[in-house]
Amino acid sequence: MPAPAPLARSRARLLARRGQASPPLVCPLVLAQAAEIEALPLQRFLTDATKLTNGLLALHGALGNDVIVTAAADGLAAEAAGTGSVTAHPRVAAAIEATRRLVATADEAALAVALCGPARLAAQLGQAPADPAVLERCGAVLLELAKAFLQAGANLLLVVEEDALPAERGDGWRSVATPLVNLARFHQAAAAVVLADPAGAADAPRGAVLCLPPSDAAAGQGVALSADPAAWGTPGPGAPLVTTLGPVRGGFAEARAAVALLVAAVGEA
């Protein structure tokens, strides 16, 4: 009989140290679907730390994967960016507190926080994603958020760019993304850069697991599936991390069926 797989938190630590995890961490960005379990409107659910914690625990049990996502690279950073302190925003405060509680209550699960990348955040704010000054301001927001989640106990930080990086970005994007990766490493957490377009791979900071669409991911790289679970295929063997390009679409039932198939497929690869 084969030995049981190491717990997800142990594999996340291995991913942080060596860029490898076996079996891979299965981390689709599912979060909003937990509001259905708690039978609450989404915005109320996302701003209530107790409901968020309970809903994410229940979602984790229903999905059967090994990562709980407490922030899903949605509009959280953009919503908080206009406030005096991003961590005081109700959504952010609830997600950070949920992360802190889940560290103690979800013993076997790795805890992931996914933030939109600086170019994506700039676009959400209606600003130029290639402007170095804009990227710098967006990076400061993301760094403050990442620090709070990592201090709360997150094991995995994902920086997600759902769209192709601007062709004229120069070194500005990398210089802003690199401190996020370095911060995760300082906290002994794994860092992943999730890109929709492999053309941006050369700018990925050192020390991060690079996640690309299945057709572009090389052996040993992470896989970034579509946000639409109906489009998921089977990731190739050897990927240490499987995630999605943004929050998973659809409701709870659709997500549960798709994640179950994904977990089975990854386990058999």
Structure overview:
The protein is of the alpha/beta class and 269 residues long. It contains ten helices and eight strands. Strands 1-8-7-6-5-4-3-2 form an eight-stranded parallel beta sheet. Strand 4 (156-161), helix 9 and strand 5 (190-195) form a beta-alpha-beta unit. The two termini are 18 Å apart. The model has no long low-confidence stretch (mean pLDDT 93).
Task: Lay out the secondary structure.
Blueprint: H1 8-18, E1 25-27, H2 34-38, H3 42-46, H4 49-63, E2 67-72, H5 76-81, H6 90-105, E3 110-116, H7 118-124, H8 132-152, E4 156-161, H9 172-186, E5 190-195, E6 209-212, E7 222-225, E8 241-244, H10 252-268
Parallel strand pairs: 1-8, 2-3, 3-4, 4-5, 5-6, 6-7, 7-8
Helix pairs in contact: 4-6, 6-8, 7-8, 8-9
The first-level CATH class name: Alpha Beta
The biggest beta sheet, please?
Answer: 8 strands, parallel
First-to-last CA distance? 18 Å
Provide the CATH topology: TIM Barrel
How many helix segments? Answer: 10
Instruction: Specify Rg, calculated over alpha carbons.
Output: 17 Å
Number of structural domains = 1
General shape: globular
Broad structural category: alpha/beta
Which sequence of SSEs, written as H and E, runs from N to C? HEHHHEHHEHHEHEEEEH
CATH architecture: Alpha-Beta Barrel
Q: Count of DSSP E strands?
A: 8
Beta fraction: 5-15%
Percent of residues in helices: 40-55%
Runs with pLDDT <50, length 5+? none
Mean pLDDT: 93
How is the largest sheet built, in terms of strand order?
A: 1-8-7-6-5-4-3-2
